[in-house]
Amino acid sequence: MKFSQIEKEHLLKAWVAVSFAFAVLNTSIFSQTFLLFFIISLLTVGLGFLLHEIAHKFVAQKYGCWAEFRADDRMLIFAIIGAMFFGFVFAAPGAVLIRGYVTLKKNGIISLAGPMTNIILAIIFLMLKLVLLPTAIVSLVLNYGFQINAFIALFNLVPFMNFDGAKIFRWNKIIYTITAVVAALLVILPVG
């Protein structure tokens, strides 16, 4: 897998901006806990976003396509403003641009790679929590990592516009349904 310099810069910028927005959402930027929540966000929601996009890229390149992530600066600013002033984050930090011959099936599989990555991450965070019996702060990180990655998966599976879910649904409604049900079950799973 190859990354251009501009792609590395865009991935880093989006990772930091998304993590910043979620840290602001969870605490005040002026709070003593802001740095802690920023680090937690980098390791949970930021990592989830980053691996989600890299999964799209990896599968697209496996199909012989050119694929590179590009951040959407306006959406990154919107995410930060939403967190700071309105108490919500709508994060659509950018997308993997793909060029090459992509069939309906290949497009569906490329699109599936992102939400599946978040489902796998959610399960890993949950398993670590159950196996490690962590301290309070580690438990907080693992809970948040589980919950946010389950949510990212479900959010991206919305079968609307250019979301991953719409492309998966067009390709294979059974795979779409199974993936969406698994993501929804993870979102509603009570984890304390």
Description:
The chain has a two-stranded antiparallel sheet with strand order 1-2. It is mainly alpha-helical and 192 residues long. It has seven helices and two strands. The protein has two domains: 1-102, no CATH class; 111-192. The longest helix is centred in the first third of the chain and has 29 residues, at 34-62.
Helices and strands in order:
Blueprint: H1 5-26, H2 34-62, E1 66-71, H3 73-86, E2 94-99, H4 104-132, H5 136-156, H6 164-171, H7 173-188
Antiparallel strand pairs: 1-2
Helix pairs in contact: 1-2, 1-3, 2-4, 2-5, 4-5, 4-6, 4-7, 5-7, 6-7
Summarize this structure as a short list of keywords or feature phrases.
2 domains; single chain; 7 helices; mainly alpha; 2 strands; 192 residues
**Helix count, DSSP H or I runs of 4 or more residues:** 7
Q: What is the 3D shape?
A: globular
Q: Flag low-confidence runs.
A: none
Largest sheet: 2 strands, antiparallel
Rg from Cα: 17 Å
Lateral strand order in the biggest sheet: 1-2
How many DSSP-defined strands?
2
Helix share bin: over 70%
- The ordered H/E elements are HHEHEHHHH
Short structural summary:
The protein is mainly alpha-helical. It contains 7 helices and 2 strands.
